[in-house]
Sequence to fold (892 residues):
Amino acid sequence: MLRTIGKRLLLLIPTLFGLSLLLFFWVRALPGGPAVALLGERATPEAVARINELYGFNEPIVQQYFTWMGQLLSGDFGVSLQTGRPVTEEFLRRFPATIELSLLALILAVGIGIPLGYWAARRHGKFTDHASVVLSLVGITIPVFFLAFILKYIFAVQLGWLPSDGRQNPRIDATHYTGFYVLDGILTGEWDAAWDAFLHLLLPAIALGTIPLAIIVRITRASVLEVQNADYVRTGAAKGISRATLRDRFILRNAMLPVITTVGLQAGLLLSGAILTETVFAFPGIGSFLAGAIFNRDFPVLQGFIIFIAIVYALINLLVDVSYSVIDPRVRVS
Amino acid sequence: MLHSRKRRGALLAAASVAMAALVLSGCSSQRDAGTGDETGDADVDGTFVFAASSDPAGLDPAFAQDGETFRVARQIFEGLVGTEPGTADPAPLLAESWESSEDGLTHTFSLKEGVTFHDGTEFNAEAVCANFDRWYNWEGLAASEALAYYYTKLFRGYASDPSSAVYASCSADDATTATVTLNQPFAGFIPALSLPAFSMQSPTAMAEFSADEVGGTAEAPTLSEYATAHPSGTGPYVFEEWAPGEQVTLVANEDYWGDTGQIDEIIFRTIDDPTARRQALESGSIDGYDLVGPADTAALEEDGFTMVSRPPFTILYLAFNQAVPELQDPLVREALSYAIDKDALITQVLPEGTEKATQFMPDTVNGYNDDVTTYEYDPAKAQELLAEAGYDEANPLTLTFNYPVNVSRPYMPDPEQIFTVLSAQLGEVGVVTNPVSNEWGDYLDLTSGSTDHGIHLLGWTGDYNDTDNFVGVFFGAQSNEWGFDNPALFQALQEARGIPNLEEQSALYEDINEMVATFIPGVPLAHPAPTLAFDPRVESYPASPVNDEVFNQIVLTE
Fold:
């Protein structure tokens, strides 16, 4: 098992190398450059030339690539053109926010999706089943940013039930250690801060988690439908095994494999959906910063962040693969 | 117990009700949480949350040029010179009075007594000279437009090349008198000192936190330690914390020499989406924001929010690129001027408070010519002139009309709408316009960086009260944007810049504005007034045309 994990990690290297190549040239293919984005109307040709000179954008592109590669291999991902701070620092500062958000979104998606999918499959053909299919279709088709906007408009602006933006109410004097605001509040005993941070996560997490939720419902339902008609389940039921045991050990355990795979893929969806959701909710995570980097042609941030995200995504999928053998010992991770 | 379906249902219902109750109680406490310190008015919530469109670029205004950095800097720092409230005219601030020599080379400032920087250092003539010398002695990266934008533009040279420098030296005659000597006269010197870039900063703090060490490399300059966490000025608010990407927190300066006002804590919250800013105001999480979209002003006003118009210090213009042969004909340019109905444009698509423009600068700037030649809307005259120039129905005047999309500037809130109105007006007199639109970055590249454009929309927000800051920027030298060579105009502007005496200079600028009006490089359209929106608890806000808005002057009702 360890050998497999080791092999997978090694495979990461050529993947990232290829990604870096693509990334570097794609990003520079974007029209316009950072100099004009930085200077705005005050961009005289001289000022633009000077900035291009300062940042080395005038050098031949292949040379720029090797300079960047060299820096990368020594751990230097460069400095953000927008803020002047190291890209790694910007990523680490904002990553906890996106993790908190994605985690809550995933919890909602899995916590509601699996029971709902199971329920629908058990009541196959009845109203619940049809309703869940229709609802999951709606969930998949609604664009994330639109849903985020509607949720915000209804629950935050019109009804005022939940906060409309940010991670924390600025009027609450909260102490932050880890960067995970809910955790910070709990660790420091500032319960109002923890609760406030949680409320700020709720709407964006619902928006972000809706698509994964819909997909998980469908996959769970399909998987459970397949399993529940198997012989061993009917034998078990006939033998009088309790409903709970039947549900957990016979049905769910066997139906989970495809669902777990999906959850692993959802991690990617969450990270990309986070860009739009975070922008709508002015949530200071890596998503909203990436959006800003695109508009301002912040090359170092675009390159660095996307590589970091690729690493995270690869690691998550590795974790998912490893978890197969835990759920189903028959599966060897080979 | 859970096996019974009825019980399960009841439990679920109970759980949801409990959850909802918790959520709602959480929300109401969110609004009441944090009544602020007791140092301000006891019955007013002293914490003021303002939404900024971006994080400040740094906390050292000497190295800044963007509005959000200056917004924060204005609360922390003060300069020798301020502005008369609501105007762009210089007024005493840290300097109670000043005297300038006839030749404009020597300026003596009488400083306010009893003022200290936030770090405890005394504010005196020595500190003033320390600041002036600091700017003058910058080297390398610091001494470039990329960082010290305003100093480079206005003072032009550094210690490394004294012959090009406007500044010569500064002497501290006594604790409260400082004399600044210039190499060349600079009539805009006093008004320029009201810019946040030239605020007085604590020499001790700057030295301790290496304010001039803009680290990193030439390819990737980084902020100094001073600019990241230790700004020290004389203003009514002291820097407390900066959570990058989220907010900047300032607290009231207990030792401030003036009136601290009702607000004892300011939080500048970064919200980069304009709709999100509006929604944050509507949901009550912020107290105000700037540059309200034109579509939102009416709705917000109806909902009872306090709307404040900033007196316009902007110019929106339609430029004629004289690299295009058709536009080289003065008859054509005159005709186009007569074809534009500025009043209609303002009523239809520009914000409340917008003023019609007769020249390329607002009336609050020195050198404004009240009697300048104007071209009142006259479509018949326009057609007559076009005919004279050789255009008619069979051979219409055809021009490319460039405009930007997906951007909103203080002087041009909705470019697409402005374009629509103007192209329709031009169409009325038989001019055929071919629209070319670009994203903001590309648009600037196209219109300012190349000659490949026709007529286009652009504008400018003034930094301080100096005609050179408007007309000099546009017409001071040959440029890709305007595409003409008019040595007489360039010469006149160059000359005017060098006149030491403000009165004499204003007279010359008035002549220049007339020169521009008859030359018709473009049509000055309007001076749009940007709007700010505030929570109804804000009774008044000190709106200033040059954004000299310090929050100790905000009046709150609760």
Remarks:
- The first strand of chain B starts at residue 47 and ends at 52.
- The mean pLDDT of chain B is 87.
